[in-house]
Amino acid sequence: MISLRVAIIQTEGCHCEIRKPANMLRHIQIHTIASRKAAVDLIQNGLVRGISQSLQCRRPEVELTSVRYPGVRRGNYAQLSDRHVQHFRSILPKERVITETEDVAGYNVDWLRMVRGVSQIVLKPKITEEVSAILEYCNAENLAVCPQGGNTGLVGGSVPVFDEVIISTSLMNSIVSLDELSGILVCQAGCILENLESYLSERGFMMPLDLGAKGTCQIGGNVSTNAGGIRLIRYGSLQGSVLGIEAVKADGEVIDCLSSLKKDNTGYHLKHLFIGSEGTLGIVTKVSIQCPPSPKAVNVAFLGLDSFDDILRTFTEARSGLGEILSSCEMMDLLSLDAATSNLKLQRPIGEFPFYMLIETSGSNGTHDEEKLTKFLETLMANGVVRDGTVASEPSRIKLMWNLREGITGGLLHDGYVYKYDISLPHNSFYAIIPELRTLLPADKVGRICGYGHVGDGNLHLNITTPKFDPDVLKIIEPFVFEWTSKLKGSVSAEHGIGFKKTQYIHFSKSQSSLNLMVNIKKLMDPKGILNPYKVLPAQH
Ligand code: FAD
Ligand code: MLT
Ligand code: ZN
Question: Ranges for the FAD-binding PCMH-type domain (predicted)?
């Protein structure tokens, strides 16, 4: 039985404005016994194992990185001494030189709680000159440093491996300028992404990137990881939107590439050295970024589907049918969504299906977008590709739907330990690794094997959970996942970076000659290797 009820009400004007029309939510329902059964089977056949007991897990102390990874040796750097601390206090006021063990503790542990360093000091500069003075001194004294933004990185890059000096940009949070004609924003690196979004939306603009960690991550961290996120399909990568960068090299020299020009072909594009280099080539202190105008109409469709092939069909149709208004194309399987619904107690807006998609449109003409979206959904439903769905145009409803997709990352942590992979794959082989891993991994040890991600960008987030870290499980997953990805000519890191966790796997996605050039660039810019050691480049370099 198929029933379709569509009542479209568009929110015009700034998409942050909240209005209350009577029927903001469009609900499309198709009832098929088969699709519900498939979804229920996934749960009942034990694919979500050990979750209830792991929900009761308390947060045990994270094992030291040096203990969990005994093969990683501390570099020949100086040890922090009282003399060093005194010097830092001559650069920064006392309250911005943090040395109390309990105050430093949080900066030593990453968001995923998988790595922990033993730094004894956090420095909090406010201006570029302070960063410069700190780095000049650390370089002269051979003190290793770890740049840290919001500490939401997922590859262990943002925390020290051993006792590196932590340089936190969290107080470098001023907006320098916004050109309201061009939409070019210049700000300090420590501005929180969500704060920038709020600032811009009040002025009719938006950030060209958005991600689940927006409330905590900083633009400097975003640029340093070349973060992708949920709107890359529409606005492209930061390599395109970032127009200029100011950064401080390891020896304290300030590199001013803070261009606010859209076109500037004067020599090498040095900004690209810093975009995505994860704090290994310099500390980003300011960013100039091209911001698009806020859309006038936004719609989000949350769809239930029976198979991954149906996801690909929907994506293909979205690209051609929605065209320029498509602003997000995300997928999640049932077990991924379950991490948000069961573990975070979020409400699922439609029934149980093996797969879900979240499709967002945004544009400047609500009526036009509405026509396109309706036609798109009607076609897919008539063909039986989309089994059930709900569409929202009202900001608070849209947020609820996005919470489901963005809540997965945090929800997974409730299972215990998360083995997190972020790979780029050709679309036709996108999901195949999940069933493969379900046959490879021991049922009694593994809680969840699930996949979600930015399907529109060919970026799968493959996640496996166990109640606690299990080295035997890890041995089955790695290097298998990377070999699989490499055979398909994918990338072992689509958007999260290499950080500490993936250094020995970078060669699966980079040729030896590229790696050699990376090593030479690193030597040129940071000859003593003080900037974020043990990250990005493989250990032998
Ligand atoms: P940090 O985690 O502090 O640092 C990340 C790396 O950048 C480290 O190597 C650090 O040394 C370096 N660094 C930080 N600031 C600077 C600086 N100013 N100069 C030089 N180096 C610096 N990532 C995505 O790409 N897409 C997503 O959709 C996405 N979603 C996420 C959702 C959640 C819930 C979470 C927790 C994370 C998500 N991430 C995502 C990962 C993470 O948020 C991004 O990598 C983000 O860009 C990191 O920003 P940050 O300020 O937290 O940086
Ligand atoms: C996401 O897309 O949700 C993020 O990249 C975080 C994750 O991989 O869990
Ligand atoms: Zn992502």
Answer: 115-294
| Distance from residue 346's CA to the centre of ligand 3 (Å) | 20
> Binning pLDDT at 50, 70 and 90, where does residue 540 land?
low
416-502 placed in CATH 3.30.70.2740: yes
Region of poorest pLDDT, from 29-38, 314-323, 475-484, 505-514: 29-38
- The DSSP line for 389-410 is EEEE-SHHHHHHHHHHHHHHHH
> Does CATH place domain 296-414 in 1.10.10.10?
no
CB of 222 shorter than 6 A to ligand 2: no
Judged by its nearest atom, the ligand closest to the C-alpha of residue 188 is 1
Q: What is this structure's pTM?
A: 0.92
Give the distance (Å) from ligand 3 centre to CA of residue 366: 28
CATH topology for 96-294+510-541 is: 3.30.465
3-state secondary structure 251-318: CCCEEEECCCCCCCCCCCCCHHHHCCCCCCCCEEEEEEEECCECCCEEEEEEEEECCHHHHHHHHHHH
What is the average pLDDT across 317-339? Answer: 98
